[in-house]
Design a protein that fits this description.
Layout (H helix, E strand, L loop, with lengths): L1 H34 L3 H35 L5 H27 L34 H22 L6 H21 L6 H5 L7 H19 L20 H20 L8 H33 L4 H16 L7 H24 L8 H15 L9 H29 L6 H6 L1 H6 L11
Helix pairs in contact: 2-3, 2-4, 2-8, 3-4, 3-5, 4-5, 4-7, 5-7, 5-13, 7-12, 7-13, 8-9, 8-10, 9-10, 9-11, 10-11, 10-12, 11-12, 12-13
């Protein structure tokens, strides 16, 4: 009996430190739980960051769409060159936007027109703690990645217009200027809190800032470069130069269509509330409706005008519908998205022959799709978005257009005077694949 009492007392004394440790542990755990942020606090940050990442890689996939579209619409002797230009321009944009473009586009405090600051964009540190994050928005890394995709898209628009006769390296030098300076400057006027934003201009996802800007840069290049050999006969006739692979062009269009959901949906820039994520779904639906309407409008119109459906017009009609809805994909009803997109498809059908009459050679139809449909989409915003006006929308479009066109045409003229931008007649006839790169996309086939 005495032994049992002794053992019990010893065990009790031994448990005292353990009880104290357990109590301290409970306190520490309770303090940690009290300090840990709730999902209501970190949810918007997490969801918006995720939206940027998903939207960003969808827009990245558009680079493949542009590559396939252009590869299909150029002749087989120039396919490798177009593919090279597309992967090179995207890579250059990735470096230039990090080096300087992002800092120009989002400079913080600036005079509203131009700010040269923020070289070498820096990301958050590894293992960022919730207490150190800006929980009201999203991670810098995700925002940088998302915005970079828009910069690269602007350059992709230029590539197709100037196909089949431009030298590779002068084109890539222009891309350096476009992605490092031209695009970030004009985009900062709206998305960086600049003077157009203060004036009340509205461009939700970039009908003007991205698409029309790329179209204006392409137009300037086409004017300086001139048309392809044999495109326009002396008697005024337009000589058709069919693309090498309409299956690739169609695949490229579907890829672009898919990527556009990230382009427009991600531009909601928030996903942390029921309202935000519901709006993203609404944007997806309107984006799809506009593309469908643009394609159907071009389908019907080409049948009526030419007695046969023109697949290339249908493809560009879908893209024009997408560009048209990009300036305001949130506010319209589905019917509103339908008629806005349909007018975009009509614009393409009439604008392509109009450019040919002006002897402006646009190989893939990028100027009608991106510039003219971009104008229409920008002017359509006031129909559904409160607080916007047609005058303000036109001023915004015109100011960006003038800036991009003037700077672009100066750069093109400088490149033309210093190193030349056009290949020789012999090289153009033989094809840029063999003369510029020394390799062909379809070596087993005769050149077209």
């Amino acid at each position: 009996m005495q032994l049992n009492k002794t053992l019990t007392l010893g065990l009790a004394l031994a448990m005292v430190p353990l009880v104290g440790f357990a109590q301290e542990t409970v306190v520490v755990v309770e303090d940690a739980e009290a300090a840990a942020p709730t999902f209501d606090e970190i949810g918007p940050y997490l969801m918006t960051t995720l939206l940027f990442l998903i939207g960003g890689f969808l827009v990245f996939w558009m680079a493949a769409g542009f590559a396939m579209l252009e590869a299909g619409l150029v002749r087989s002797k120039n396919v490798t060159t177009q593919l090279t230009k597309n992967i090179a321009l995207f890579s250059i944009a990735g470096i230039m936007y990090w080096l300087i473009g992002y800092g120009i586009m989002y400079p913080g405090d600036f005079n509203g027109y131009f700010a040269l600051q923020g070289w070498f964009t820096e990301l958050e540190p590894v293992g960022l703690a919730a207490a150190d994050a800006d929980l009201g928005y999203a991670s810098v890394a995700s925002d940088f990645f998302f915005q970079l995709m828009f910069c690269a898209t602007t350059a992709s628009i230029v590539s197709g217009t100037l196909a089949e006769r431009i030298k590779l390296w002068p084109f890539l030098i222009f891309v350096v200027v476009l992605t490092g300076f031209i695009y970030p400057i004009e985009a900062s006027w709206q998305w960086g809190g600049g003077w157009l934003s203060e004036m009340g201009f509205s461009d939700f996802a970039g009908s003007t800032l991205v698409h029309a800007a790329g179209g204006f840069a392409a137009l300037a290049g086409a004017i300086v470069l001139g048309p392809r050999l044999g495109k326009y006969a002396k008697d005024g006739r337009v000589i058709p130069m069919p693309g090498s692979n309409l299956a690739l062009a169609t695949l490229g269009t579907f890829i672009l269509w898919l990527g556009w959901f990230g382009f427009n949906g991600g531009s909601q820039l928030a996903a942390g509330t029921v309202g935000d994520i519901t709006d993203v779904g609404r944007i997806f639906a309107n984006t799809n409706m506009a593309a469908s309407a643009g394609a159907v409008a071009a389908l019907i119109l080409t049948q009526v005008m030419y007695k046969k459906v023109d697949l290339t017009m249908v493809l560009n009609g879908a893209l024009a519908g997408l560009v048209s809805i990009t300036a305001g994909p949130l506010d319209p009803s589905l019917f509103g998205a339908l008629w806005i997109g349909a007018i975009g498809g009509v614009i393409v059908v009439f604008a392509v022959p109009m450019l040919d009459k002006m002897k402006i050679d646009d190989v893939v139809g990028a100027i009608p799709v991106h510039l003219l449909a971009g104008l229409w989409g920008t002017l359509a915003v006031p129909f559904y978005t409160d607080g916007t006006s047609f005058v303000t929308q036109f001023i915004g479009f015109a100011s960006i257009g003038i800036f991009v066109f003037v700077v672009s045409i100066v750069v093109w003229f400088i490149l033309k005077a210093t190193m030349g931008i056009r290949v020789s007649e012999e090289a153009e006839i033989a094809g840029l694949d063999t003369t510029e790169l020394g390799m062909e996309a379809y070596p087993e086939f005769a050149r077209g």
